[in-house]
Amino acid sequence: MRISTSLMYQTGLSTLGAQQSDLMHLFQQIGTGRRLVTPADDPLAAAQALNMSQTLALNTRYADNRAIAKQNLGIEENTLNSVTQALQDIKTRVVEAGNGTYADANRRSLADVLKNYRETLLGYANATDGNGQHLFSGYKGDAPAYVKASDGSIVWSGDSGQRMIQVDQTRRMSSGDVGADIFNRATPGTNSYVATAHSSNSGTGLIGSTSVTDPAGANVGKSFSIAFSEVDIDGDGTLEMAYTVTIDDGVSSPTSLPPQAYVDGQAIDLGGVSVVISGQPEAGDAFETEPAQSADLDLFATLDALIEILETPVDGDPVAQAKLTNILNTANQKITINHDNVLTVRASVGARLDELDKLDANGAQRGLGYEDHLSKLENVDWYQAISDLQLRQTALQAAAMAFQSIQANTSLFMQKR
Predict the structure, then answer these.
(1) Which of 182, 157, 196 has the alpha carbon at shortest distance from 339?
(2) What are the boundaries of each domain within the chain?
(3) How far apart are CA 293 and CA 186, in angstroms?
(4) Cα-atom radius of gyration of the chain, to the nearest Å?
(5) Are 125 and 176 in contact (CB under 8 A)?
(6) Model confidence at 415, in pLDDT bands (50, 70, 90)?
(7) CA-to-CA distance for 352 and 346, rounded, in angstroms?
(8) What's the 3-state SS for the chain?
(9) How far apart are CA 352 and CA 392, in angstroms?
(10) pLDDT in tens, 95-104
(11) pLDDT for the residue numbered 379
(12) Which residue, 218, 196, 216, is CA-closest to 205?
């Protein structure tokens, strides 16, 4: 068999080149610390590493989102804490306004105090986050949640949109609450009632708070109107003060019950619901009691009504005194419901903050697992790489020595003529 000199040179150079290429690849792996210098090194591992990198990036993004949600919810919690304290102070002022020894001047002073609280609450309702976005205006983050109308009243101007943040792979969370759900409603599921007296009443009748005596009662959850008139109940020609209860379930037509004789201070049973009316109502006077879920619980409107009645002179006028007492009672009921609702929202904020802490812990644990798996896919095994480097260096030296030996003894492979 004849082996040409050129073939020997080509084979030797090819072997040296292959050894040098392998050695260079090891140099690249050790220099970069990465096992996958190119996808060709391990196509399956390269694909898995790409997917794992994307998963790790998403996990990091979720952690950033949770940080934003924590910041917003933390600001909301601080704001609602201030709102809670303000409402507690307002309730104290409302009770104080009912002091029978107070004169008109004292009540006007209380009205000034409530005006300050009104402005303070407006500031809380229009609080912003660190980026200048209003917390409680829904999707309209660039606009205040509440604005002053031309008549001086404070009205809701946000929307009902909930700003949601993706805080985990399968969890979206609201990073705030809508102002109308804080300052304008009752806690969902509450069975509280709000009792009011008509502004046109001419008697001294007073309506107390409404209580649910039997949660399974037939009329629980319905609205009631109690109208007073003089009626001959016994049929003896004698007129006496009586009341007629009209029941409204909000679906069918209201139903009026037969007139009943009025007894000062006696509880009126409305079918699972009880209300007490005292004093001396006049014919034509009327009172209403309705579930908190359907009542007008606009906190700012309640404050406006309080301020107005406290600025109205009532000294020496029993009818005006009764009107003052009724409005104070109604306002106290509404503010109590508002206060309970704010506490409920705060509890919800606390629950979300607690969930974010747990998601952070889980996310950090997952992140460590993702990084470890990605490291195993991408990073070089130093012990193996150094061992391979030494082996390749030895192989390259051996190939070089073999090539040199062949060059020096080429005549061994040539036939004599």
Answers:
(1) 182
(2) 34-192+300-379, 196-291
(3) 6
(4) 41
(5) no
(6) very low
(7) 10
(8) CCCCHHHHHHHHHHHHHHHHHHHHHHHHHHHHCECCCCHHHCHHHHHHHHHHHHHHHHHHHHHHHHHHHHHHHHHHHHHHHHHHHHHHHHHHHHHHHCCCCCCHHHHHHHHHHHHHHHHHHHHHHCCECCCCCECCCCCCCCCCCEEECCCCCEEECCCCCCCEEEEECCEEEECCCCCHHHHCCCCCCCCCEEEEECCCCCCCCEEEEEEECCCCCCCCCCEEEEEEEEECCCCCCCCEEEEEEEEECCCCCCEECCCEECCCCCEEECCCEEEEEECCCCCCCEEEEEECCCCCCCHHHHHHHHHHHHCCCCCCCHHHHHHHHHHHHHHHHHHHHHHHHHHHHHHHHHHHHHHHHHHHHHHHHHHHHHHHHHHHHHECCHHHHHHHHHHHHHHHHHHHHHHHHHHHCHHHHCCCC
(9) 58
(10) 999 988 899 9
(11) 61
(12) 196
CA 110 to chain CA mean position, Å? 34
Which of 241-250, 270-279, 377-386, 395-404 is least confident? Answer: 377-386
CA proximity to 338, closest of 101, 94, 110, 132:
94
- At residue 207, what is the residue type? I
Q: How many C-beta neighbours within 10 Å does residue 149 have?
A: 9
Residue 213 has φ and ψ, to the nearest 5°, of: -90, -25
Nearest to 270 by CA among 195, 220, 198: 220
- The whole-angstrom separation of Cα 147 and Cα 36 is 60
Work out whether strand 260-261 and strand 171-174 pair parallel, antiparallel, or are unpaired.
unpaired
Among 3.90.1200.10, 2.30.39.10, 1.20.1330.10, 3.30.70.2740, name the CATH number for the domain at 34-192+300-379: 1.20.1330.10
What confidence score (pLDDT) does residue 416 get? 46
Phi, psi of 236 (to 5 degrees): -100, 10
Residue listed under structure tokens 């007894």: 263
User: Which two three-digit tokens encode residue 39?
Assistant: 């996808």
Cα separation, 128 vs 144, in Å, equals 9
> Would the pTM of this model clear 0.70, i.e. be above it?
yes
- Max Cα-Cα span within the chain: 159
> Model confidence over 60-83: pLDDT tens digits?
999 999 999 999 999 999 999 999
User: Up-side HSE of residue 346: CA atoms within 13 Å toward CB?
Assistant: 16
Instruction: Name the phi and psi angles at 259, rounded to 5.
Output: -60, 145
Query: Which burial class, exposed, middle or buried, applies to 331 when counting CB atoms under 10 A from its CB (0-12, 13-18, 19+)?
Result: buried
Amino acid identity for residue 186 in this structure? A
